[in-house]
Sequence to fold (283 residues):
Amino acid sequence: MSARFEPVTGRYLHLDLLGKPHRVYVEEAGAGIPLLCLHTAGADTRQYRGLLNEPRILKDYRVIAFDLPWHGKSSPPAGWENANYQLTSRDYLDIILTMSEALQLDRPVAIGCSIGGRIALHLALEYPQRFRAIIGLQAGAHVEPYYDLNWLHRPDVHGGEMAAGIVSGLMGPRSPSAERWETLWHYMQGGPGVFKGDLYFYNIDGDIRARVEEIDTSRCPLYLLSGEYDYSCTPDDTRDLARRIKGTQAVIMEGLGHFPMSEDPARFLTYLMPVLDRIRRAK
Fold:
């Protein structure tokens, strides 16, 4: 194979988040409508490599992905050793909106998966005027914990391998082996306690079941794409959201699981491209 560079640019953005200085890692590619990508719990922007390298998307969209603080190449703030990382709805919203402002994004399209899909529902509810459209991947309104979170941060357990073990069953059985294992590798590299801290938002603080019917899709279109092989955000969870949120468009993606954009990027794009085309034509 001949050597080549991808069309992706990675840089560090210095800014204040939640009242503290941060150094946040940002990747982007393409030009046009901003497409802001939000990764899953305990992982990072590498999950969106399929979008960042897809010529059909890059000709019309500026694809932007950033590692949340404490994740990937974004370090925790100074003094982290004395803190207990725990993601809340308010902090998550503030991080996304502050990043959008710092990057000077004019009504971007937001796409998020898992915790990113959950916060997408919060964005649609509280800040519809700030976004051109919102795409929720595996975007359930709530999930009951189905494992003991304490195993994710113990001195006698490798938290990264434990996290990978937990999420391994959430992927579609037909997803390519290389992509499945790369998705798991991202989880194995997570910082101590970070996945557990994200799941505080996912399992507890981010519960939005009581308010989803308030989402007004006439102010901001909402698209839901969910893989059929997912017992965290199940197809039935997605269908329930579609029934409760008037005007929401939902699709169950065959053969895919909880990490569609990273476990099988090629298959995922067959579902995503029609949505992006529709958003582009409506601008």
User: Anything to note?
Assistant: The chain has a mean pLDDT of 95. The chain has one domain: 9-281.
